[in-house]
Amino acid sequence: MTSTELRLRDVYPHLTANIVALLAPDPLAATVDALPYLGRCTCTPTCVNLLTAPPGSAGYDLIELERGDEPVIWLNLNPSRTAIVDIEVLDPRELTTTRPVAQSTVVS
């Protein structure tokens, strides 16, 4: 990544903070602050995925972040489960809120 590329934290600082708070102490939490922001997915006008890697990079694993029992964010992982490649925002309030969500659950 070059220094001129946008980072997720530059575009969505509150979302980035929420993801970091939820993932700690998972090692992926340390990578969130440096995630690039490649824009929104354009597969459909209503798609809510934020790309942090080129389209097609995702594997089949995701981490579900919840507020209480309600899923609010899905983190799609690369096939080796070592990087977040896109973020599906299920609750649009997460794009502006500073409130961390409650817990995370790994769904395989």
Instruction: Classify the beta-strand content into a percent band.
Output: 25-35%
Please report the total strand number as a whole number. 6
* Structural class by secondary-structure content: alpha+beta
Dominant shape: globular
Oligomer: single chain
Helices and strands, in order, run as: HHHEEEEEE
Q: Major β-sheet, in short? A: 6 strands, antiparallel
In round numbers, the mean pLDDT is 84
Distance linking N and C termini: 29 Å
Number of domains: 1
Helix content: 10-25%
Q: Walk across the major sheet and give the strand order.
A: 1-2-5-4-3-6
As residue ranges, the low-confidence spans are 97-108
Number of helices: 3
Radius of gyration: 13 Å
Characterization of this structure:
This protein has one domain. It contains three helices and six strands, in the order αααββββββ. It has helices at residues 8-11, 13-23, 29-32, and strands spanning 39-40, 49-51, 62-67, 70-77, 84-89, 103-107. A hairpin with a 6-residue loop joins β4 and β5 (84-89). It is globular.
